[in-house]
Amino acid sequence: MGFLTLEGVSKVYGGLAAVRDVDLAVARGEFVSLLGPSGCGKTTTLQMIAGLVEPTAGRIGLDGRDITREKPNRRGLGVVFQSYALFPHMTVAENVAFGLEMRKVPRAERDRRVAEMLALVHLANLAERYPRQLSGGQRQRVAIARALVIAPPVLLLDEPLSNLDAKLREEMQFELRRIQRSVGTTTIMVTHDQAEALSISDRVVVMEAGRMTQIDAPYRLYEQPATAFISTFVGKMNRLAGVWGDGGVAVAGTVLASAPADVAAGTAVTAWIRPEKLHLRPMGEGRLAGRVASRFFLGGHWLLTVGTEAGDILVSVPNTGEEPAREGEPIGLDWEPASLRVEAGAGAAA
Amino acid sequence: MNRSVATPLMLASPGAVLFAGLVIVPLVLTLILSFLAYDHGTGIKDSWTLAHYMHVLSDSYYLGIFWRTLRLAALTTLICALIGAPEAYILSRMRSPWRSVFLLVIIGPLLVSVVVRAFGWSMLLGSTGLVNAALAAVGLGPVRLLYTETAIVIALVHVMLPFMVIPVWTALQKLDPMVEAAAWTLGASRFSALRRVVMPQVSMGLLSGSLIVFGLSASAFAIPGLLGGRRLKMAATLVYDEYMHELNWPLGAAIAILVLVANLVIMLAYNRAVEARARRMLG
Description:
The complex is a heterodimer. By secondary structure, chain A is of the alpha+beta class. Chain A is 25% helix and 34% strand. Chain A has nine helices and 20 strands. In chain A, strand 9 and strand 10 (211-216) form a beta hairpin. Chain B is mainly alpha-helical. The relative contact order of chain B is 0.13. Chain B has one domain: MetI-like fold (Orthogonal Bundle). Chain B starts with a helix and ends with a helix.
């Protein structure tokens, strides 16, 4: 069974459900991300685990103990807030020592553990600085050190990287994963950034309108999104509306794929395909003809928009050192049949 | 004088003239007046003397009034801090419609003249007033409140409270509410979080509020005048009496200057402490 468990947890604010009937089991040492757009209830879920928000219904368990009604200061979880919430009137060392002080850890041991933790986050030389004298990335590491020094059973991260610029954010993702690996603390991170969730988590939990709609490893989440929303929220996705007819799915008159067996003839279906699963072919070859409408160079790859009878399709072409088709050039598109997913229904817009 | 030097002087001159005319000149005149000799028969004379200062500083009557002024101002400041800081904390934790309502309730009394409020208190605290009627009803008998130091302090606290609440509230507004939550998650009880994390950060507001309350209380005139009565004088009412009843203007001026100096010394010392703290906290 899970180390940290949520069973049927809900939170209702004045008749409005922010979190609805959430079930989750996190294993010891696991890194789990709660991913979703703003207002999906992911931060509320994290705050309920931290004890800052009381659930309306449900049960939260930690290592077999029911902590649903326990005060935050009794839970002993490490929390890193989005704003970092450092104590501005204390030095870095005093900030980190605060949790140990509250636990009445003797002075000598406290100093030793603070020094160890500051070394782990590479801040040993800034111990006597005040938070206002630090950069964003340094503050974030102080917040992590402060949360980890109390050796919490679970570390909760609320959008820890959202206040950092893009370059630093990428560095801190590796840093965060390195620290988490070396300490081995069970970690739950809230984020709205799908790339961040995919890159550092063992499992990703996608939340939509207060519900958890998919809990999976990053790769499976990307390859087999459970809902239309997830397929567009995580990574880029082409969505083609079509009809199931004789011999397969037809999009704008072209047969693209064989349809799933359980779909009746003549029903509307939606076909999904990732941009990187499409290959460029010379004109006349491939399964679908089109014309390059626009072309973006993104360093590692090119992103082409190809106008076809089925609508505009995004195609991602790896940068192999050769320029792909230019704007206005007619081309063909091909793909492995398995990479096209077909679903019944018009495919609710995400 | 070239243009670049003249411009700032010109720009500063209206303010300088106003300040000189309304503050410097009256103060200098009062200072000069305090050194002039006075005779009960003939009035102010044209000779210099230190007699008024000697008289005030050697007479236990005056020293007693000074001591009472300091004591009551300090007591008012302390009570305002004890009531005002929690009040500001509760106010900052209120939700949007109630916060504005209660902020108005706190600031509202400032819209009423101090004299009116002092008369209000004298009606409440009088021997047949509401407070004594209530005390009598529960069998505690009439208590003498009006024309006592207690009455002065009660009314001063009432008048001064907004000057304490507002700076503390402003300091609390700048505080990230998550900082307190962070302290809880690190194992701090509500009380330790308040003491170790919230209080140090609002102490600046508390200290500047204290400075305002102390300064205003020590120089208060209407409240001690109306609630302290003829006998229970404070510094400002004493000066008034010397001028208007004894007609001994130089003595009144000497008292005023002494009160000013005492107030300045206390407030500057206090301000130094506040600034030293601010430097440490804000860098």
